From TrEMBL:
Keywords: ATP-binding, Calcium, Kinase, Nucleotide-binding, Serine/threonine-protein kinase, Transferase. This is Non-specific serine/threonine protein kinase. It holds the Pfam family Pkinase. The keyword Hydrolase does not apply. Its cofactor is Mg(2+). InterPro entries: CDPK_Ser/Thr_kinases, EF-hand-dom_pair, EF_Hand_1_Ca_BS, EF_hand_dom, Kinase-like_dom_sf, Prot_kinase_dom, Ser/Thr_kinase_AS. Residues 1-227 form the Protein kinase domain. SUPFAM superfamilies: EF-hand, Protein kinase-like (PK-like).
Amino acid sequence: MMKREIPLLSTLDHPHIVKIYAYAEDMVKSEFVLILEHLAGGDCHRMGACREATAARLVHQVLLALAHCHSRGILHRDVKPDNMVLTAVPTNGAELDCKLIDFGIAARRDGSQRDLCGTPGYIAPEIILDTAEFTGKADMWSLGVTAVEILTGILPFGTLEDHGGDLRTWMKRVTQYEDLEDFEPFLGGSREWQSCSPLAKDFIRKLLNPDPEQRLAAKDALNHQWLQEHKAASMTLTSEMLQSLAAYVDAPSLVRCCLYIIVARHGVPDLEKFGAAFLSIDTDGDGMISRDDLAKAIDQVSTWWGPSVCPDQLLNAADLDHTGCLNFTQFVAACIYSRHVIGGQFDLLLSQSFEALDADRDGQVSVDDIRPLFRERDSPLLQRLPQDRPFGQGEWSACLRLAWQDDSKAVDSYKLGFMGVMDDMLKNFACSQAPRPSDPADMIEVPAQPAISRSPLII
């Protein structure tokens, strides 16, 4: 199942879906090892009952992940609290965030998904009865069951033990379900269930409609009032992000690719902050930022004295796979540009990009291994690297430095344009001119900062 999970998980890119950084196959043991982002908080099954606001927040996050999956034709097929993992250890007063994991039995929707799969107690009735193919609506049923369990700490259709170990009896209870009143045998004495708001029960009722045609789809469920009342506050672009996006437009293409590789394979700190901004910009909840999304977000935070960002130019620079939209990784790569280059941490870009490319950690990388990661227009830059043998970090760093020098306007054009605005502003106040920035070459020579370590979760 793990081998099946890799290609599907690799195509998904969302703030609430676990990121896969690398994988390896042991041919001798016939085993796969996945290196995923570290999620420290444990799964939601261990939490027991949550406050309603917390439950709504977590359900909303998983729903965003499912909307992204379904928009790309991917079905998870095993949604449950065990597969919702918290990003950090819960602390008093802290907001909880989670990510969807375990795509081991996920599949692409191709019209032939009629096999009985999933975890008993969460499987939709039409799948048990084999009256319909597996669609996104079956994932929504599982999410409805999950919502009840997170709110109450109780599986609404009971456990296998509750049915004397008889799987058929357990599944029969699911197929005979008609409305929330049927939960009475297991939830009737639950204070948490009795205290659930009418809006929460309305949301659950619409996910647990026995008729999949009448059941809410993911994109429609996102607009339910229960989720809207409890969802996290919207986060706009910060001034640092806006500065980075403005400069990223003129960045050398090789540098842009390196930033993308760092985010995709190495990870970055503050990923949750970028995720919150990404989700706020993604107005339709499909996990992609369109040109109109960009324009609206930039317009909300732009000022006459700040950097100017053209949405079309930014999209052209950051859309490395030419889809016409930005995925999460592309967005984060653009947002961290100022941190690595304008912030004077170019050496960190060099070291982290090499670490990300060096998948087996042997200190050597070959051109053939990395060529598919770069655009055709970067070929002349890659030609500077040894073609007939592996190379180390020193040669890689030298190649990037030459690429930077060939297109040094990336920092100059942004800084000088911005300082020109500052000069005009200061003249109006009878002040002296703004000081000029240091030469970009000086910035490149800043001593390397220690690489940020992110402990991987290996399963």
